[in-house]
Design a protein that fits this description.
The protein is 22% helix and 23% strand. The chain has 272 residues and is of the alpha/beta class. Strand 6, helix 5 and strand 7 form a beta-alpha-beta unit. It starts with a strand and ends with a strand.
Length: 272
């Protein structure tokens, strides 16, 4: 078994009605996957950091009834999206989908989203046509991880992947620190998330302007629609939105026995 693993992560495709931005982002992601593996070798893990699906059908906000795109259409498009990525990866690459809040909205027991008597029909894994693609991917539940229940993240060496829960201006750093401390506080961790749609280069956490902490964070941004393609997000400031892919390598094994920072990573951001 190798003692290092190469990885890549993207986030927030929000598969739904047709989107030119999503297609541009997918081309960017596939191109980077091909180029990186040609130069540096095959990937060990690929992580979709959540909100693969947009799930307007499960939204508590007003819905556009003029959109003729069903939840089943969305499931089919989501499977096609995952398959397009999988075909750029080695056959033995670990495929991980950290569910995001939009994905999870379909599953939660909330009658405002999906009626309880219809929820069994919304299992993407069991669909006869495209369920097989979803079952190829390890699905991480949308919940905050802790030292007692780590199911809400994917850990690869010192690197922690999760969707994200807060979207404030400092949420990448603050939430990264919270997750690191919740997982035991071991130093030299890197947290990689999405959720805010704002791509972020790998950055070291700080206690103050001049005092660095032994933790790092990055954000993969959004691989989904932007601008007027997202009518329900028009109130949000999208100036910092962008598509990114986080690519790196980490030593694997027991984190507590590692000396110093045993990973390297970078965020590649698409030119707007």
């Amino acid at each position: 078994m190798p003692d290092t693993a190469r990885f890549a992560a993207i986030s927030c495709a929000h598969v739904g009605p047709a989107s030119k931005e999503r297609l541009r982002s997918l081309d960017f992601i596939l191109s980077n996957l091909a180029d990186d593996q040609k130069q540096n070798g095959p990937l060990h893990s690929f992580v979709m950091l959540g909100d693969l699906l947009d799930a307007q059908a499960a939204s508590v906000h007003p819905r556009d009834d003029n959109i003729e795109h069903t939840l089943e259409d969305e499931f089919r498009d989501g499977a096609d999206y995952l398959e397009a990525i999988r075909r750029e990866l080695p056959k033995d690459c670990k495929l991980v989908w950290c569910l995001g809040n939009h994905d999870s909205n379909i599953l939660v027991a909330d009658a405002r989203r999906i009626q309880s008597d219809l929820r069994s029909l919304c299992d993407w894994n069991s669909h006869a046509e495209f369920g097989n693609e979803y079952r190829r991917w390890r699905q991480v539940p949308y919940q905050k991880p802790s030292i007692h229940d780590r199911k809400g993240c994917y850990e690869l060496g010192q690197v922690v992947f999760f969707h994200g829960f807060d979207a404030g201006s400092n949420s990448d750093e603050l939430e990264g620190l919270q997750i690191c401390y919740a997982l035991g506080g071991t130093a030299h961790r890197l947290t990689i998330r999405g959720h805010s749609h704002r791509p972020k280069h790998v950055t070291q956490c700080k206690r103050s302007a001049n005092v660095l902490l032994p933790y790092w964070y990055a954000n993969a941004g959004t691989a989904g629609p932007m601008g007027t393609e997202v009518p329900y997000m028009q109130r949000k400031d999208q100036n910092q939105w962008g598509c990114g892919i986080v690519i790196g390598e980490t030593k694997i094994g027991r984190v507590g026995r590692m000396n110093g920072k045993c990973w390297s990573a970078r965020t590649v951001i698409r030119d707007q």
